[in-house]
UniProtKB/TrEMBL annotation:
Presence of the UniProt keyword Signal in the record: yes
Lineage: Bacteria, Thermotogati, Deinococcota, Deinococci, Deinococcales
Protein name according to UniProt: Penicillin-binding protein
Signal peptide feature range: 1-22
Species the sequence originates in: Deinococcus rufus
Keywords for this protein: Signal
Length: 137
């Protein structure tokens, strides 16, 4: 009798030894939140220890999209003038339900679902040109 490997068991063992990583999942709906969703919007999930977010906020605000600020982890940190920050235990629960692995997390949301996400590495381009013009690659 030939010895066969159990592919499912091998996969489960391999997954079990990999470190667990939080990852925001594209296509998932946003968890419960206190704002009325816009057609397309940007959600910034950040904490007090993100450092200077001036360039990030400038790029986000330049998009012209509605911006939602979620200040997670229970220590207040400012958002730009005119952008109310959601704070407290519910904001932290929102970030954890999303499985945010690194702050700041920038989420491009359309119709209440996550269209794109950047965790800790947002360079200022939301990729809107390709979304608005189907002829673009």
């Amino acid at each position: 009798m030939s010895r066969r490997r159990a592919p499912l068991l091998t996969l489960l063992l391999a997954v079990g030894v990999m470190p667990a990583q939080a990852r925001v999942r594209l296509g998932e709906p946003l968890p419960a939140h206190p704002w009325v969703s816009a057609g397309r919007e940007v959600v910034v999930v950040y904490s007090h220890d993100c450092g200077d977010l001036g360039a990030l906020w400038t790029a986000i605000l330049a998009s012209g999209l509605p911006v939602r600020a979620v200040n997670a982890e229970d220590i207040p940190a400012p958002a730009p003038t005119g952008v109310p920050a959601w704070r407290g235990a519910d904001a932290t629960a929102f970030a954890r339900t999303l499985r945010v692995g690194t702050y700041p997390a920038v989420l491009l949301v359309q119709g209440g679902r996550i269209l794109n996400a950047w965790e800790g590495t947002f360079a200022g381009d939301l990729g809107l040109a390709g979304l608005d013009d189907p002829g673009q690659p």
